[in-house]
Amino acid sequence: MAVNEEHRQVEVARDLSSQARILVHSTRDVPAPFDSYTLLGELVATVDDLEQVCQQLGAWHSRVVDGEHYAGEDNRGDGATGTVTASAELQRAAAALGAASEALRAAHSANGVVRWFDA
Q1: Tens place of pLDDT for every residue, the chain, 119 residues?
Q2: How many CA atoms lie within 13 A of 105 on its CB side?
Q3: CA–CA dist 117, 119 (Å, integer)
Q4: 3-class SS at 4?
């Protein structure tokens, strides 16, 4: 069961980033081919979670109030506010992660019919 780590959000995000970098460097090869199925399943779950994080952060940005949650912003000259733009871009990121999740699910499914050697 997941624990609410609201007070450690930045630390948890840094840990996730660090673990992702380790995974990047470790997946140039897959020494135990049968692990690829499980690896893809874990990636699906992770991307689904990241999609939800982006949705939630986007929703949060859409609810913040100037003067209550932040003290104004630098004028960008384009009429858009930073919070509105951040919310829209986070929703766009969530949609992209949804598409990535679909592709990963398809890869996971395709991988599932392969008879990998048990090293």
Answers
A1: 577 888 999 999 999 999 999 999 999 999 999 999 999 999 999 999 999 999 999 999 999 887 788 777 777 656 568 999 999 999 999 999 999 999 999 999 999 999 999 76
A2: 9
A3: 6
A4: coil
Q: Where are the domains of the chain?
A: 33-69+83-119
Are 54 and 22 spatial neighbours (Cβ–Cβ below 8 Å)? Answer: no
Of 13, 80, 11, the C-alpha closest to 46 is 13
Report pTM: 0.88
**Residue located via tokens 């912003």:** 73
Distance, CA of 55 to CA of 96 (rounded, Å): 11
Q: Tokens at residue 111, please?
A: 């991988």
Which string of b and e fits 64-97 if b means at least 16 CB within 10 Å? eeeeeeeeeeeeeeeeebebeebbeebbebbeeb
